[in-house]
Amino acid sequence: MRAFSYEKPTSVSAAAGAVAQNEGAKFIAGGTNLLDLMKLEIEVPTHLVDVNGLGLDKIEATEEGGLRIGTLVSNTALSAHEVVRRDYGVLSRAIAAGASGQLRNKATTGGNLLQRTRCPYFYDTNMDCNKREPGSGCSALDGESRQLGVVGTSDKCIATYPGDMAVAMMALDAVVETTSPNGTSRQIPLGDFYRLPGDTPEVETTLQPGEMITHVVLPAPVGGRHFYEKIRDRASYAFALVSVALILQTDGTGRVALGGVAPRPWRKDSADAQLPNGAKAVMAELFREANPTEDNRFKLVLAERTLAGLLAAAKE
After folding, report:
1. Which of 106, 131, 178, 262 could bridge to 201 as Cys pair (CB 3.0-4.6 Å)?
2. 234: pLDDT strictly greater than 90
3. Rounded Cα–Cα distance for residues 128 and 130 (Å)
4. Residue 133 contacts by C-beta under 8 Å, 6 or more apart in sequence?
5. pLDDT band at 103 (very low <50, low <70, confident <90, very high)
6. Cα separation of 56 and 63, whole Å?
């Protein structure tokens, strides 16, 4: 790990300003992903801005009937929150499916949204990776791609977004609240928060330099039955080959979001509209532009069978 300087501001605006004014600066909260990347010298920040202690660790009801979640709320606290468990079960289940208990105790809501891909070529600094080193190439295109993306990818990058929490939040129409260095705030629907790789896979979100996530807002509960199913190579502590977040209403309508298949949590309104017609129709829409490799083509079938299993379980 390379040397870096450190500060712990006492306000959100000061934290945002500190990152904006220091080239190479990074926010740090739980550090569960960033510190690993620093040890491997994939991330080499020259300055760390510690955002712990800014009072962003509360879960509050909104006037619209939803929840406003501080960016520093731990994954454990969010998953166990009474209202989340009762009204947003898909989110509680998704968080519980991710990482270990120790990591969930330390990982934060904002940091979880910003975790980086677990593509093995991104982590191997001896290999070319456009996401790690723009313009160097993508070793995954001709390499082992079993874990990698099947849709939303480009000829520059086929890495997947690794998280579980964001997949459930996508199904819930969550909104990210931010503060910029100049003090302005904005709300970004999660569907607009993540960028597809295109020609610039190193740019993963629509955040501007120094812009800090302060909250995530969940709209009022939509009811229905909530499911989250994660398919992985081993039963604990592994990232998803495919994950399915499902909210299903009694009339057969609902929402579906996928993890493990794309550079961001994957959801389409046109696929939601196909839910009454079954899993095959839903996946035909979700994977309409799919471009799998021979190694990961199985994900198309795996996702369909996972959703079909959830729909069958919902009838019991």
Report:
1. 131
2. no
3. 7
4. none
5. very high
6. 19
Tokens of 231: 């398919």
Q: Are 268 and 278 in contact (CB under 8 A)?
A: no
Q: Encoding tokens for residue 223?
A: 């009811």
For residues 309 and 193, give the distance between their C-alpha atoms in angstroms, rounded to a whole number: 30
Task: List the structure tokens of 93.
Answer: 């289940």
- Decide if 72 contacts 111 (C-beta within 8 A): no
Measured distance CA(202)–CA(198) in Å, rounded? 10
> Using CA atoms, how far apart are residues 248 and 227, in angstroms rounded to an integer?
8
Tokens of 71: 């960016």
Residue type, 234: R
Q: Is the overall model pTM greater than 0.85, yes or no?
A: yes
Question: pLDDT tens digits for 28-50?
Answer: 999 999 999 999 999 999 999 99
For 126-157, the three-class secondary structure string (H helix, E strand, C coil) is CCCECCCCCCCCEHHHHCCCCCCCCCCCECCE
What is the side-by-side strand order in the sheet with 175-179?
A: 59-61, 67-70, 212-218, 175-179, 185-189
Pair of tokens at residue 270? 């046109």
Contact 122, 159 (CB under 8 A): yes
Beta bridge partners of 282: none
Segment holding 179, helix H or strand E: strand 175-179
For helices 298-314 and 279-286, give the axis angle rounded to 10 degrees: 140
| pLDDT at position 237 | 79
What is the 8-class DSSP label of residue 11? S
Dmax (CA) of the chain: 58
Phi, psi of 67 (to 5 degrees): -130, 145
Written as six digits, the tokens of 299 are: 């994900």
